[in-house]
Amino acid sequence: MNNISIREYITSSFKGDNENEIKESIEDSIKEGLEEALPGLGVFMEIIWKNASEDLKKELLDILKTHLN
């Protein structure tokens, strides 16, 4: 395999996928609970975080805080 980063691999794997395909991949990854899916979910979270408004970031933090207590 080339020197491709996990971020590049994940983002290139989903290029061209529609919303439903991405949603199904996320839901399947969570449902299966496979440790191998965690890096991909982390890449998705990074993309969301970098592009989220401050209000959405606050909402995400509130959700995390509620479920981590």
Question: TL;DR of this structure?
Answer:
By secondary structure, this protein is an all-alpha fold.
What does the model show?
- The mean pLDDT is 94.
- This protein starts with 5 loop residues before the first helix and ends with a helix.
- 75% of the residues lie in helices and 0% in strands.
- It contains 4 helices and no strands.
- The longest helix is centred in the last third of the chain and has 15 residues, at 54-68.
- The protein is globular, with a radius of gyration of 14 Å.
- It has one domain (6-68).
- The chain has 69 residues and is mainly α.
**Tally of extended strands?**
0
Shape: globular
Summed up, the domain count is 1
- Alpha-beta content class: mainly alpha
Number of helices: 4
Helical content class: over 70%
Instruction: Classify the oligomer.
Output: single chain
Beta-strand percentage range: under 5%
For the sheet with most strands, the description reads: none
Q: What are its keywords?
A:
mainly alpha; 69 residues
Helix and strand arrangement:
Blueprint (H helix, E strand, L loop, with lengths): L5 H9 L4 H14 L5 H14 L2 H15 L1
